[in-house]
Amino acid sequence: MTRARHPTRGYSLLEILIAVAIVAMVSAGIAVAVAKHHSTAQHKTAASEAQVIRSAAQLFRLDSPGECPSVGALIQAEMLDRALRTRDPWGTEYRISCNDRHVTVRSAGPDKKAGTEDDIEVPPEKS
What we know:
Elements: H1 13-63, H2 71-76, E1 95-98, E2 103-107, E3 120-122
Antiparallel strand pairs: 1-2, 2-3
């Protein structure tokens, strides 16, 4: 006795296109979510690194009152680890400024232009 073969049904072009469109929409949604979290992580990294640099600059000033160090000077004085990045997550150098009592470290932020709204400053400027 032989069994009757049932013809196998393939997928139509329309079904394949719908599946590809669904995968593309899900991928786009994931990409948007990941990009948002990546940007947040960059800001947190910059603020954290700036805080480490600021702490080292404050210690440097205890040994050398009146001087405002650069990041390079802090590394040379072995107050910062050589492995610490001297540039922010967007590739610009951290800037240290000092006055009589305070040390401030700034990152130019994502636009890489100092003095704009997206700058990261430690400690934050009081409004």
